């Protein structure tokens, strides 16, 4: 069973219970899934990118490779960026797999440079803006405030299709909900992620699953061939899916061994000291995030 995907809902539930938190988080779930077939050939589609990565903010603590959880760089309102420019987006603010991935190559979670290359080749038309979606545990906030704003901005840009790349477990829920909202608005989507159980539990039209550690939904780090192949698979899924809840698994492997799957949030492998340390870190990050959120959202 080492090759089976990690069950993130179960793993994170058990982890937070081990840390002493009660009332396990309940992920969103829908039976009905909206589905918008592409209305144009790929070369004529205006394609955007939706990310949960945060813009780098100098002076707000570690945000690069190996950085711990950092609530100071969280954002609470969707942002947009110019796709013609390069952007320094990082993932130090989310519960990615810090043990088995490096956080060094942003193309693993933000494939904008490669999308620009494909646009330059005439494969697609790149929207003028990409979009950042807040990682919000409040499903109501995501559905009633964040998703409608992203949909509105995509409509303003004449977007035909969106690629959504989540990072942490709740990020996967956030962008699954965003994909549903975009599809209902007539914009075709593909979620490119690593938490299969969460995305399929929510229910999305198209999902490209890479069985990699969290934070690598767009390919392996420092491996341009895997990043290109991953994006090509997503575009094939965008144009080829004929029904909702279509999941395509990437044939790429993270490594020869599947041992990395045993470590993520695994209370059975943690010492009492490690659990106590994790609890203290989460409490501190949560308190800081709540204070920042209260200031950002009246």
UniProtKB/TrEMBL annotation:
It comes from the Bacteria. This is Reductase.
């Amino acid at each position: 069973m080492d090759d089976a995907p990690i069950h993130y809902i179960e793993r994170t539930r058990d982890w937070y219970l081990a840390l002493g938190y009660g009332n396990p988080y309940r992920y969103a779930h829908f039976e009905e899934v909206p589905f918008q077939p592409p209305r144009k050939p790929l070369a004529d589609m205006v394609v955007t990118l939706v990310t949960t990565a945060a813009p780098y903010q100098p002076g707000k603590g570690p945000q690069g490779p190996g950085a711990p959880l950092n609530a100071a760089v969280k954002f609470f309102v969707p942002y947009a960026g110019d796709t013609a420019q390069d952007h320094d987006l990082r993932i130090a603010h989310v519960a990615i797999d810090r043990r088995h991935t490096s956080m060094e190559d942003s193309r693993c979670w933000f494939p904008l440079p490669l999308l620009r290359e494909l646009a330059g080749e005439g494969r697609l038309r790149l929207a003028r803006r990409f979009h950042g979606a807040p990682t919000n545990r409040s499903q109501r906030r995501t559905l009633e405030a964040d998703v409608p704003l992203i949909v509105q901005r995509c409509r303003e840009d004449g977007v035909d299709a969106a690629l959504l790349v989540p990072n942490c477990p709740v990020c996967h829920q956030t962008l699954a909900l965003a994909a549903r909202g975009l599809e209902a608005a007539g914009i075709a989507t593909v979620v490119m992620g690593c938490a299969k159980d969460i995305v399929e539990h929510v229910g999305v039209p198209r999902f490209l699953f890479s069985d990699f550690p969290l934070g690598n939904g767009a390919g392996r780090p420092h491996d341009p061939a895997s990043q290109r192949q991953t994006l090509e698979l997503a575009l094939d899924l965008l144009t080829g899916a004929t029904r909702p809840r279509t999941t395509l698994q990437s044939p790429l492997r993270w490594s020869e061994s599947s041992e990395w799957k045993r470590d993520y949030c695994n209370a059975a492998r943690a010492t009492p000291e490690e659990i106590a340390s994790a609890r203290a870190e989460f409490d501190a990050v949560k308190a800081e995030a709540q204070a920042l959120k209260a200031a950002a959202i009246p």
